[in-house]
Amino acid sequence: MEFQDGFPDYETLAQHNDEAGVGVRKKLMNVFWLLLAITLVEVAIGWFWHDIKASSGLSQTWLIVSFIMFTLLKAGYIVMTFMHLGDENKMMRWMILGPYFLFAVYLIYMTTVTEGMYSGQKGHRDLLYPITKEAPAATPAHHE
Amino acid sequence: MSSHAVAKPQGWGGGTSPLGTSHGKLFMWFFLISDALTFTALLVALGFFRHKFAEEWPVSTQVFTHFPFTHAHLPLIYVGWMTFDLILSSVTMVLAVEAGHRNDHKKVLLWMALTILGGAIFVGSQVWEWWIFIEGSADGAMRWQLIDGQWVEQVFHGANLKYNEYSVTPHYANFFFCVTGFHGFHVFSGVVINIVAFTMAYLGVFKRRGHYEFIEKVGLYWHFVDLVWVFVFTFFYLL
Description:
The structure holds two protein chains of two kinds.
Chain A: H1 18-56, H2 60-82, H3 90-114, H4 125-128, E1 131-132
Helix pairs in contact in A: 1-2
Chain B: H1 23-52, H2 60-63, H3 77-101, H4 105-135, E1 141-147, E2 150-156, H5 171-202, H6 205-209, H7 213-238
Antiparallel strand pairs in B: 1-2
Protein backbone atom coordinates (compact mmCIF):
# COMPACT_ATOMS: atom_id res chain seq x y z
CA MET A 1 0.00 0.00 0.00
CA GLU A 2 1.31 3.33 -0.98
CA PHE A 3 1.45 5.81 1.85
CA GLN A 4 -0.87 8.71 1.29
CA ASP A 5 0.40 12.03 2.42
CA GLY A 6 -2.83 13.99 2.18
CA PHE A 7 -6.20 13.12 3.59
CA PRO A 8 -9.09 12.68 1.16
CA ASP A 9 -11.25 15.69 0.56
CA TYR A 10 -13.98 14.75 3.03
CA GLU A 11 -15.93 17.92 2.37
CA THR A 12 -16.88 16.70 -1.08
CA LEU A 13 -17.31 12.99 -0.30
CA ALA A 14 -21.06 13.28 0.19
CA GLN A 15 -21.63 15.00 -3.14
CA HIS A 16 -23.82 13.25 -5.69
CA ASN A 17 -25.23 13.90 -9.12
CA ASP A 18 -28.75 14.86 -10.15
CA GLU A 19 -29.91 11.28 -10.86
CA ALA A 20 -28.83 10.07 -7.43
CA GLY A 21 -30.51 13.14 -5.90
CA VAL A 22 -33.95 11.91 -6.99
CA GLY A 23 -33.60 8.76 -4.88
CA VAL A 24 -32.19 10.67 -1.91
CA ARG A 25 -35.07 13.14 -1.94
CA LYS A 26 -37.62 10.34 -2.17
CA LYS A 27 -36.12 8.71 0.90
CA LEU A 28 -36.15 11.99 2.81
CA MET A 29 -39.79 12.67 1.95
CA ASN A 30 -40.76 9.14 3.04
CA VAL A 31 -39.14 9.78 6.41
CA PHE A 32 -41.00 13.09 6.67
CA TRP A 33 -44.39 11.43 6.07
CA LEU A 34 -43.52 8.77 8.60
CA LEU A 35 -42.60 11.36 11.26
CA LEU A 36 -45.79 13.27 10.53
CA ALA A 37 -47.88 10.11 10.80
CA ILE A 38 -46.30 9.19 14.15
CA THR A 39 -46.95 12.71 15.48
CA LEU A 40 -50.60 12.54 14.40
CA VAL A 41 -50.98 9.15 16.08
CA GLU A 42 -49.45 10.57 19.25
CA VAL A 43 -51.81 13.54 19.28
CA ALA A 44 -54.77 11.22 18.58
CA ILE A 45 -53.81 8.90 21.43
CA GLY A 46 -53.40 11.90 23.76
CA TRP A 47 -56.78 13.29 22.69
CA PHE A 48 -58.75 10.04 23.00
CA TRP A 49 -56.80 8.55 25.90
CA HIS A 50 -59.66 8.71 28.39
CA ASP A 51 -62.02 6.92 25.98
CA ILE A 52 -59.38 4.32 25.14
CA LYS A 53 -58.68 3.77 28.82
CA ALA A 54 -62.37 3.44 29.67
CA SER A 55 -63.23 1.03 26.87
CA SER A 56 -60.14 -1.17 26.89
CA GLY A 57 -59.00 -1.02 30.49
CA LEU A 58 -55.38 -0.36 29.57
CA SER A 59 -53.28 1.12 32.34
CA GLN A 60 -51.37 4.40 32.26
CA THR A 61 -48.14 2.43 31.84
CA TRP A 62 -49.20 1.46 28.31
CA LEU A 63 -49.59 5.11 27.42
CA ILE A 64 -46.18 6.03 28.80
CA VAL A 65 -44.39 3.08 27.19
CA SER A 66 -46.03 3.64 23.80
CA PHE A 67 -45.22 7.37 23.81
CA ILE A 68 -41.60 6.68 24.69
CA MET A 69 -41.39 4.06 21.92
CA PHE A 70 -42.87 6.50 19.37
CA THR A 71 -40.42 9.17 20.52
CA LEU A 72 -37.39 6.91 20.23
CA LEU A 73 -38.56 5.81 16.78
CA LYS A 74 -38.85 9.42 15.65
CA ALA A 75 -35.48 10.28 17.19
CA GLY A 76 -33.87 7.34 15.42
CA TYR A 77 -35.16 8.45 12.03
CA ILE A 78 -34.10 12.07 12.61
CA VAL A 79 -30.57 11.11 13.68
CA MET A 80 -29.99 8.38 11.11
CA THR A 81 -31.61 9.98 8.04
CA PHE A 82 -31.86 13.74 8.54
CA MET A 83 -28.55 14.06 10.35
CA HIS A 84 -26.98 11.48 7.99
CA LEU A 85 -25.46 9.48 10.84
CA GLY A 86 -26.61 6.34 9.05
CA ASP A 87 -24.37 7.33 6.12
CA GLU A 88 -21.25 7.81 8.27
CA ASN A 89 -18.87 4.94 8.86
CA LYS A 90 -19.31 2.50 11.72
CA MET A 91 -16.56 3.93 13.89
CA MET A 92 -18.02 7.44 13.60
CA ARG A 93 -21.49 6.18 14.54
CA TRP A 94 -20.23 4.49 17.67
CA MET A 95 -18.08 7.44 18.63
CA ILE A 96 -21.15 9.69 18.60
CA LEU A 97 -23.74 7.34 20.10
CA GLY A 98 -21.57 5.39 22.57
CA PRO A 99 -20.50 8.21 24.92
CA TYR A 100 -23.96 9.78 24.80
CA PHE A 101 -25.77 6.60 25.82
CA LEU A 102 -23.16 5.82 28.46
CA PHE A 103 -23.84 9.11 30.27
CA ALA A 104 -27.57 9.22 29.57
CA VAL A 105 -28.14 5.73 30.94
CA TYR A 106 -26.02 6.50 34.00
CA LEU A 107 -28.00 9.70 34.61
CA ILE A 108 -31.31 7.84 34.41
CA TYR A 109 -29.89 5.13 36.68
CA MET A 110 -28.88 7.76 39.25
CA THR A 111 -32.27 9.44 39.37
CA THR A 112 -34.36 6.28 39.38
CA VAL A 113 -32.29 3.80 41.38
CA THR A 114 -29.77 5.52 43.64
CA GLU A 115 -29.95 9.28 44.38
CA GLY A 116 -33.60 9.62 43.51
CA MET A 117 -34.69 7.14 46.15
CA TYR A 118 -33.81 9.17 49.21
CA SER A 119 -33.97 12.80 48.18
CA GLY A 120 -36.61 14.70 50.07
CA GLN A 121 -39.69 13.56 51.89
CA LYS A 122 -43.28 14.48 51.29
CA GLY A 123 -43.77 16.27 54.58
CA HIS A 124 -41.13 18.83 53.78
CA ARG A 125 -42.96 20.33 50.87
CA ASP A 126 -45.48 22.42 52.76
CA LEU A 127 -42.76 24.21 54.66
CA LEU A 128 -41.03 25.18 51.47
CA TYR A 129 -44.10 26.10 49.45
CA PRO A 130 -47.00 26.88 51.77
CA ILE A 131 -49.78 26.75 49.18
CA THR A 132 -52.80 24.44 49.21
CA LYS A 133 -55.96 23.98 47.21
CA GLU A 134 -58.24 23.11 50.13
CA ALA A 135 -58.69 25.18 53.27
CA PRO A 136 -55.98 24.09 55.72
CA ALA A 137 -57.17 22.03 58.69
CA ALA A 138 -55.29 23.96 61.32
CA THR A 139 -53.85 27.44 61.22
CA PRO A 140 -50.30 27.40 62.52
CA ALA A 141 -49.78 29.40 65.71
CA HIS A 142 -48.48 32.82 64.96
CA HIS A 143 -47.03 35.45 67.22
CA GLU A 144 -49.16 38.42 68.16
CA MET B 1 7.17 -14.71 8.54
CA SER B 2 5.53 -16.08 5.46
CA SER B 3 4.90 -14.06 2.38
CA HIS B 4 1.15 -13.70 2.93
CA ALA B 5 1.63 -11.62 6.08
CA VAL B 6 1.32 -8.39 4.13
CA ALA B 7 -0.32 -5.78 6.35
CA LYS B 8 -3.86 -4.97 5.32
CA PRO B 9 -4.63 -1.27 5.44
CA GLN B 10 -5.95 -0.59 8.94
CA GLY B 11 -8.00 2.38 10.03
CA TRP B 12 -5.57 3.34 12.77
CA GLY B 13 -2.45 2.56 10.74
CA GLY B 14 -2.03 6.10 9.52
CA GLY B 15 -2.59 7.56 6.11
CA THR B 16 -6.37 7.47 6.42
CA SER B 17 -8.91 9.04 8.72
CA PRO B 18 -10.60 6.38 10.85
CA LEU B 19 -13.78 8.40 11.21
CA GLY B 20 -13.93 9.28 7.54
CA THR B 21 -15.30 12.72 8.12
CA SER B 22 -14.16 16.32 8.09
CA HIS B 23 -13.10 18.27 11.17
CA GLY B 24 -16.01 20.66 10.98
CA LYS B 25 -18.68 17.97 10.98
CA LEU B 26 -16.91 15.96 13.67
CA PHE B 27 -16.70 18.91 16.04
CA MET B 28 -20.30 19.89 15.38
CA TRP B 29 -21.20 16.36 16.48
CA PHE B 30 -19.06 16.68 19.61
CA PHE B 31 -20.85 19.90 20.48
CA LEU B 32 -24.21 18.27 19.87
CA ILE B 33 -23.36 15.38 22.21
CA SER B 34 -22.60 17.79 25.05
CA ASP B 35 -25.74 19.77 24.28
CA ALA B 36 -27.79 16.58 24.13
CA LEU B 37 -26.51 15.64 27.58
CA THR B 38 -27.62 19.03 28.92
CA PHE B 39 -31.13 18.45 27.60
CA THR B 40 -31.08 14.89 28.90
CA ALA B 41 -30.28 16.25 32.35
CA LEU B 42 -33.14 18.76 32.12
CA LEU B 43 -35.64 16.12 31.03
CA VAL B 44 -34.47 13.58 33.61
CA ALA B 45 -34.83 16.28 36.28
CA LEU B 46 -38.33 16.97 34.95
CA GLY B 47 -39.19 13.29 35.28
CA PHE B 48 -37.79 13.21 38.79
CA PHE B 49 -39.80 16.23 39.98
CA ARG B 50 -42.92 14.93 38.30
CA HIS B 51 -42.57 11.70 40.18
CA LYS B 52 -41.89 13.44 43.48
CA PHE B 53 -44.83 15.83 43.07
CA ALA B 54 -47.07 13.32 41.32
CA GLU B 55 -50.20 14.36 43.27
CA GLU B 56 -49.79 18.07 42.58
CA TRP B 57 -48.61 17.76 38.98
CA PRO B 58 -51.28 18.87 36.49
CA VAL B 59 -52.07 17.06 33.25
CA SER B 60 -50.40 19.12 30.53
CA THR B 61 -53.08 18.24 28.00
CA GLN B 62 -55.55 20.06 30.27
CA VAL B 63 -53.29 23.12 30.58
CA PHE B 64 -52.36 23.74 26.95
CA THR B 65 -55.80 23.79 25.39
CA HIS B 66 -55.78 27.15 23.64
CA PHE B 67 -55.52 27.90 19.97
CA PRO B 68 -55.16 31.34 18.37
CA PHE B 69 -58.30 33.14 17.14
CA THR B 70 -60.65 30.72 18.87
CA HIS B 71 -61.93 30.05 22.38
CA ALA B 72 -62.56 26.38 21.69
CA HIS B 73 -61.14 23.75 24.02
CA LEU B 74 -58.45 22.13 21.85
CA PRO B 75 -55.93 20.18 23.89
CA LEU B 76 -52.63 19.31 22.18
CA ILE B 77 -53.60 20.80 18.82
CA TYR B 78 -51.42 23.88 19.12
CA VAL B 79 -48.40 21.90 20.33
CA GLY B 80 -49.08 19.40 17.56
CA TRP B 81 -48.99 22.26 15.09
CA MET B 82 -45.66 23.47 16.51
CA THR B 83 -44.26 19.95 16.15
CA PHE B 84 -45.49 19.78 12.57
CA ASP B 85 -43.92 23.15 11.79
CA LEU B 86 -40.55 22.10 13.22
CA ILE B 87 -40.55 18.75 11.38
CA LEU B 88 -41.43 20.60 8.19
CA SER B 89 -38.55 23.03 8.63
CA SER B 90 -36.31 20.03 9.32
CA VAL B 91 -37.31 18.59 5.94
CA THR B 92 -36.60 21.84 4.13
CA MET B 93 -33.22 21.94 5.89
CA VAL B 94 -32.30 18.41 4.81
CA LEU B 95 -33.41 19.28 1.27
CA ALA B 96 -31.07 22.28 1.39
CA VAL B 97 -28.25 19.93 2.43
CA GLU B 98 -29.17 17.57 -0.40
CA ALA B 99 -29.17 20.46 -2.90
CA GLY B 100 -25.76 21.44 -1.54
CA HIS B 101 -24.49 17.95 -2.29
CA ARG B 102 -25.45 18.56 -5.92
CA ASN B 103 -23.96 22.10 -5.86
CA ASP B 104 -27.43 23.39 -6.77
CA HIS B 105 -27.05 27.03 -5.74
CA LYS B 106 -30.65 28.15 -6.32
CA LYS B 107 -32.26 25.22 -4.55
CA VAL B 108 -30.01 25.75 -1.52
CA LEU B 109 -31.20 29.34 -1.29
CA LEU B 110 -34.86 28.35 -1.68
CA TRP B 111 -34.81 25.61 0.97
CA MET B 112 -32.72 27.67 3.39
CA ALA B 113 -35.20 30.55 3.11
CA LEU B 114 -38.10 28.18 3.87
CA THR B 115 -36.18 26.73 6.82
CA ILE B 116 -35.66 30.21 8.26
CA LEU B 117 -39.36 30.90 7.79
CA GLY B 118 -40.35 27.68 9.57
CA GLY B 119 -37.98 28.43 12.45
CA ALA B 120 -39.29 31.96 12.82
CA ILE B 121 -42.88 30.65 12.90
CA PHE B 122 -41.89 28.20 15.62
CA VAL B 123 -40.27 30.91 17.77
CA GLY B 124 -43.37 33.07 17.28
CA SER B 125 -45.62 30.16 18.26
CA GLN B 126 -43.62 29.64 21.40
CA VAL B 127 -43.88 33.32 22.30
CA TRP B 128 -47.67 33.06 21.96
CA GLU B 129 -47.76 29.98 24.14
CA TRP B 130 -45.65 31.61 26.83
CA TRP B 131 -47.91 34.65 26.73
CA ILE B 132 -51.05 32.53 27.22
CA PHE B 133 -49.35 30.52 29.97
CA ILE B 134 -48.18 33.63 31.86
CA GLU B 135 -51.47 35.51 31.42
CA GLY B 136 -53.58 32.56 32.51
CA SER B 137 -57.36 32.35 32.65
CA ALA B 138 -59.74 35.10 33.73
CA ASP B 139 -61.07 33.01 36.61
CA GLY B 140 -57.68 31.95 37.90
CA ALA B 141 -57.41 29.42 40.68
CA MET B 142 -58.28 29.69 44.38
CA ARG B 143 -55.37 28.95 46.70
CA TRP B 144 -54.63 29.04 50.40
CA GLN B 145 -51.27 30.55 51.05
CA LEU B 146 -49.30 30.83 54.28
CA ILE B 147 -48.28 34.45 54.70
CA ASP B 148 -46.63 35.53 57.97
CA GLY B 149 -48.08 32.53 59.79
CA GLN B 150 -51.65 33.11 58.55
CA TRP B 151 -53.44 31.09 55.89
CA VAL B 152 -54.79 33.57 53.39
CA GLU B 153 -57.18 32.77 50.56
CA GLN B 154 -55.97 34.13 47.26
CA VAL B 155 -56.68 33.91 43.54
CA PHE B 156 -53.74 33.11 41.30
CA HIS B 157 -53.75 34.11 37.64
CA GLY B 158 -51.35 32.62 35.11
CA ALA B 159 -47.86 31.77 36.16
CA ASN B 160 -44.56 33.14 37.37
CA LEU B 161 -41.56 31.46 38.96
CA LYS B 162 -43.19 31.38 42.42
CA TYR B 163 -46.90 30.81 41.86
CA ASN B 164 -49.08 29.43 39.09
CA GLU B 165 -52.74 28.67 38.73
CA TYR B 166 -52.15 25.25 37.19
CA SER B 167 -50.63 23.56 40.19
CA VAL B 168 -49.83 24.21 43.85
CA THR B 169 -46.18 23.47 43.21
CA PRO B 170 -44.10 26.13 41.44
CA HIS B 171 -42.03 23.38 39.78
CA TYR B 172 -44.58 22.86 37.04
CA ALA B 173 -44.26 26.42 35.74
CA ASN B 174 -40.53 26.45 36.46
CA PHE B 175 -39.94 23.40 34.31
CA PHE B 176 -42.15 24.81 31.59
CA PHE B 177 -40.10 28.02 31.49
CA CYS B 178 -36.79 26.21 31.84
CA VAL B 179 -37.25 23.38 29.35
CA THR B 180 -39.18 25.18 26.63
CA GLY B 181 -37.16 28.35 27.19
CA PHE B 182 -33.85 26.54 26.82
CA HIS B 183 -35.13 24.83 23.70
CA GLY B 184 -36.68 28.03 22.38
CA PHE B 185 -33.38 29.83 22.72
CA HIS B 186 -31.74 27.03 20.74
CA VAL B 187 -34.33 27.53 18.01
CA PHE B 188 -33.70 31.27 18.08
CA SER B 189 -29.95 30.82 17.73
CA GLY B 190 -30.59 28.21 15.04
CA VAL B 191 -32.59 30.76 13.05
CA VAL B 192 -29.75 33.28 13.42
CA ILE B 193 -27.18 30.72 12.25
CA ASN B 194 -29.47 29.78 9.35
CA ILE B 195 -29.68 33.43 8.34
CA VAL B 196 -25.87 33.62 8.40
CA ALA B 197 -25.65 30.48 6.24
CA PHE B 198 -28.29 31.80 3.84
CA THR B 199 -26.43 35.11 3.49
CA MET B 200 -23.12 33.34 2.85
CA ALA B 201 -24.79 31.11 0.25
CA TYR B 202 -26.44 34.15 -1.34
CA LEU B 203 -23.08 35.93 -1.58
CA GLY B 204 -21.67 32.87 -3.36
CA VAL B 205 -19.12 31.92 -0.69
CA PHE B 206 -19.86 28.20 -1.03
CA LYS B 207 -19.97 28.37 -4.82
CA ARG B 208 -16.40 29.65 -4.82
CA ARG B 209 -15.41 27.11 -2.17
CA GLY B 210 -16.73 24.26 -4.34
CA HIS B 211 -18.77 22.58 -1.62
CA TYR B 212 -21.71 23.35 0.68
CA GLU B 213 -20.41 21.66 3.81
CA PHE B 214 -21.24 24.71 5.91
CA ILE B 215 -24.92 24.13 5.11
CA GLU B 216 -24.51 20.53 6.26
CA LYS B 217 -23.01 21.60 9.60
CA VAL B 218 -25.73 24.18 10.15
CA GLY B 219 -28.21 21.45 9.21
CA LEU B 220 -26.84 19.17 11.93
CA TYR B 221 -27.54 21.85 14.53
CA TRP B 222 -31.01 22.52 13.14
CA HIS B 223 -31.97 18.84 13.13
CA PHE B 224 -30.72 18.58 16.68
CA VAL B 225 -33.14 21.33 17.68
CA ASP B 226 -35.94 19.31 16.07
CA LEU B 227 -34.71 16.17 17.82
CA VAL B 228 -34.87 17.85 21.22
CA TRP B 229 -38.38 19.11 20.53
CA VAL B 230 -39.51 15.54 19.82
CA PHE B 231 -38.47 14.66 23.37
CA VAL B 232 -39.85 17.85 24.95
CA PHE B 233 -43.15 17.24 23.15
CA THR B 234 -43.40 13.76 24.66
CA PHE B 235 -42.06 14.34 28.15
CA PHE B 236 -43.55 17.74 28.88
CA TYR B 237 -46.78 17.88 26.87
CA LEU B 238 -47.94 14.33 26.21
CA LEU B 239 -47.12 12.41 29.36
